[in-house]
Write a structure and sequence with these properties.
The protein is an alpha+beta fold. It has six helices and four strands, in the order βαββααβααα. It is globular.
Length: 173
């Protein structure tokens, strides 16, 4: 068992990456369940931005109490695992551990340190459909990009060659 501990600085925004087990492409097919799961979480938080891809998702989350972020993620993952219509096939180990085989056990987190860091992660989130599927952010419907366009924080045609080169140098998965 590892001694891995999460550090949370209260009042900060946290970037989270959640990945399906063996990168199974099941998330966009279950988008309504994903949305319902986030709404069902009983802790106080808000998702500032996010993108759901076929096998993983990125969110920027701000919790009333950041020490509850592991509970928020756990509740979300359990809700999806319990309610997914056609769960993936479980391995023997997963059956012994009573795991459904939907999610990787851990998730990646990063505390946003300043406005520049926030903007970098917002760009990364909204660029992800381009990175993985060569779909422009404006054409990916499982993202907060349109919300940011409506607030005049992004141009609808954002993601030009210069943007892509800058974002490709980031590795946040």
């Amino acid at each position: 068992m590892s001694n891995y501990k999460r550090y949370y600085n209260f009042g900060k925004i946290v970037f989270i990456t959640i990945v399906t087990y063996n990168r199974q492409p099941i998330l966009t097919d279950n988008i309504e369940l994903i949305r319902k799961a986030w709404k069902s979480v009983k802790y106080k938080f808000r998702i500032i931005a996010g993108v759901v891809l076929k096998d993983h998702m990125h969110i920027l989350i701000e919790a009333e109490d950041n020490s509850e972020i592991p509970k928020i993620i756990s509740f979300f993952k359990q809700y999806v695992s319990k309610n997914i219509q056609s769960p993936p096939i479980q391995t023997d180990i997963q059956q012994r551990r009573q795991e459904k085989g939907v999610w990787q056990r851990r998730y990646y987190d990063h505390i946003i340190r300043n406005e520049q860091d926030l903007n970098k992660h917002l760009d990364y989130i909204h660029y992800n459909p381009m990175k993985h599927y060569q779909i422009l952010p404006k054409d990916w419907k499982y993202s907060s990009f349109q919300k940011f366009v409506e607030q005049n924080l992004y141009d609808i045609d954002w993601c030009n060659f210069e943007d892509i080169n800058e974002i490709n140098n980031m590795d946040l998965e």
